[in-house]
Specification:
This protein is of the alpha/beta class. Helix content is 40%, strand content 16%. 29% of the residues are buried.
């Protein structure tokens, strides 16, 4: 049913007219089956939107358009590598321009892991810097030497990309996280230890928060307040799903303020597959997929939201435009307030969904302290 764009939840299936069939039933060619539609929508008409006309094309960009009248149509645009790269550059250029993400005189700190996402963002921002008539835009790429980057190929790739595109590259030593969070052992060791506890599902949050906070501290040293992250469409859709299902507020997309810092997300409207095509065309080789860290495999954390975000994009290509715009409109109706963590100094958004009294430390520092990894 899924292969034919029929949601299993929309039908009840019977065998030999009256025997109910389980979802995991294996079809018997010698028996007759009937799937009875129990929803009142035009399933046949909707399925026509997804009929394949793309068998001869390598990559087809699909977009489900919604007219003012409510009429739906599926746009299909075949893209080879050069045209995909042009499309991605145009999308990022329009995003930067429409939302004013980059202004003349800006000094940007770009979090550069060396992977596809951050590497593509470096190349796209460098191209924008060189083409736009914006004076004195400086890009400072910073690679945090976290768990394994010192020995990985992506670490060297980050340095090569920055040099090729005339972007200053800085390596932030792993010890900086120990200094910022007042740790009594390396963060890499803490993340592995955390995976052996009942808080294993929080390891990825701790990893991401510590990396962002290190970038903020480095931005302070440069006198910069704007930080660019290579979060693409799926990343941000997953974050919104997490927000909607928990009730926790997150800032607007593709630009959000977190305490004294402004985060910009120029890849918000670029799906991961198109980002891969762009990277391959610009570098001349397909990006290598590095093995995720142990704490990035846990289905109890954001992995499930990523899975759902990918499913949404397949069923409704282009849904990010609607969701991000609606979320930005809702976020504009109230002002988020932030409190500074007394341990790491990071900004914590005050959430209306919880009655918890602010303890003075952020969630990650509270987690680290609970396990005894912060100096007393």
């Amino acid at each position: 049913m899924l292969r034919n764009f029929i949601p299993p939840t929309s039908v009840v299936t019977y065998c030999e007219q009256d025997q109910l069939v389980a979802d995991d039933h294996v079809l018997d060619p010698a028996r007759s089956y009937e799937a009875r539609l129990i929803e009142g929508y035009d399933l046949v008409g909707i399925r026509r939107l997804f009929e394949s006309r793309d068998s001869s094309a390598g990559y087809v960009r699909r977009r489900l358009s919604v007219a003012d009248t409510g009429m739906l149509s599926m746009e299909r645009t075949p893209l080879d590598l050069p045209s995909a790269a042009v499309h991605v550059e145009a999308t990022v250029r329009e995003t930067i321009g429409e939302f004013g993400l980059v202004q003349g005189g800006d000094r940007l700190v770009l979090g550069l892991s060396g992977g596809v996402d951050s590497g593509s963002l470096l190349m796209l921002l460098a191209a924008y810097r060189d083409a736009a008539e914006l004076p004195n835009v400086e890009i400072e790429a910073a690679t945090f030497q976290d768990f394994d980057s010192k020995w990985s190929e992506t670490f060297d790739s980050a340095a090569r990309l920055a040099e090729k595109h005339k972007v200053r590259h800085h390596v932030l030593e792993a010890s900086l996280a120990e200094e910022v969070f007042h740790l009594n052992r390396p963060m890499a060791q803490i993340l592995m230890l955390l995976m052996e506890t009942e808080d294993a599902h929080l390891a990825m949050y701790a990893d991401h928060h510590s990396t962002r906070r290190v970038l903020e501290v480095y931005a302070d040293r440069l006198g910069a307040r704007k930080i660019a992250l290579g979060l693409h469409t799926t990343d941000l859709l997953a974050g919104l799903l997490n927000s909607y299902t928990t009730g926790f507020d997150v800032g607007p997309i593709p630009q959000r303020t977190v305490g004294p810092y402004e985060y910009i997300l120029p890849l918000a409207f670029v799906p991961k597959r198109e980002l891969h095509l762009y990277y391959t065309h610009l570098t001349g080789y397909a990006p290598k997929q590095t093995t995720p860290n142990q704490w990035e495999f846990n289905p109890g954390d954001r992995n499930f939201h990523y899975f759902l975000a990918d499913q949404l994009q397949w069923s409704w290509p282009g849904i990010e435009t609607w969701m991000f715009t609606a979320h930005a409109l809702q976020a504009s109706k109230h002002t988020m307030t932030f409190a500074a963590c007394e341990n790491c100094g990071g900004s914590m958004a005050q959430q209306s969904v919880t009655d918890a009294v602010w303890s003075g430390v952020c969630d990650v520092c509270a987690l680290l302290d609970r396990h005894g990894w912060i100096h007393s």
